[in-house]
Design a protein that fits this description.
Radius of gyration: 20 Å
Strand content: under 5%
Oligomer: single chain
Membrane topology: Multi-pass membrane protein
Number of helices: 9
Distance between the termini: 8 Å
Main location: membrane
Pfam families: EI24 (PF07264)
Helix content: over 70%
Protein name: EI24 domain-containing protein
Keywords: Membrane, Transmembrane, Transmembrane helix
Number of strands: 0
Shape: globular
Largest sheet: none
Structural class: mainly alpha
Length: 228
């Protein structure tokens, strides 16, 4: 049975696994590090802009602007950055889940090269940014509905996430390029929608990428081998 509730339950139950905890720590550290570096760069950018405008920065205005811009950027872009970073640890998540639940599949998996992981990460991130930018005009029009904008972005990101999470697992087990994706569009959307929802919940959003990758591992393997 490859149901989403079952996959999520199994994923939550493995959060205490040392291998999973290590991945969560490393991915969060790098994700936060990226935003700190961006914030540091922005402080210099704002300082240069204020100087160019002939304004003094005695009160630390550039630092304040950089902090605010970083916080807003983290709120808007956390999902993209976290999932991009997770691309480089996805294999570790998949291996940890497979080692515990699917040892036979683990021995048959292939490792993706750094180049493949980088290409997949950049492609997925650009695809997500493009889709969200295309949805933006419609989201603005839906602001009057109160909830339409949030639902639109949730649906767009749920659709994208389902595919990305499936591919994190499937590409390591795909026999050839003609093999059909193991999860149907409906199951991919359910998986992506659940993770997109978790990304909106404070604190849980820090675990959402890893939970998504672990749940995708269960769903992909149970679809490829229904008796697993």
């Amino acid at each position: 049975m490859n149901s989403l509730p079952r996959a999520l339950a199994l994923s939550f139950s493995q959060l205490g696994d040392p291998a999973i905890l290590q991945i969560i720590f490393k991915s969060l550290l790098i994700t936060l590090g990226i935003f700190l570096v961006v914030g540091w760069g922005l402080s210099f950018g704002f300082e240069a802009a204020l100087e160019w405008a002939g304004l003094e920065d005695g009160g630390g205005a550039s630092t304040l602007l950089a902090v605010l811009a970083t916080i807003i950027g983290a709120w808007l872009l956390f999902r993209f950055v976290a999932l991009f970073v997770l691309q480089f640890f996805a294999e570790d998540v998949v291996r940890a889940v497979e080692a515990k639940h699917y040892p036979d599949a683990a021995s048959a998996a292939r490792s993706l090269s750094f180049g493949e992981e980088l290409k997949n990460g950049i492609r997925a991130t650009l695809r997500a940014l493009l889709a969200n930018l295309l949805a933006l005009p419609f989201a603005v029009m839906l602001l009057v509905t109160g909830i339409g904008t949030a639902l639109l972005f949730w649906a767009v990101n749920g659709f994208l996430l389902g595919r990305e999470l499936q591919d994190m697992v499937w590409l390591r087990h795909r026999v050839d390029e003609s093999e059909l994706a193991p999860l149907g569009q409906g199951k991919r959307f359910m998986l992506g929608g659940a993770v997109a929802g978790l990304l909106l919940v404070p604190f849980l959003n820090l675990l959402a990428p890893v939970l998504g990758a672990a749940s995708a591992t269960h769903m992909v393997h149970r679809s490829r081998s229904p008796h697993a």
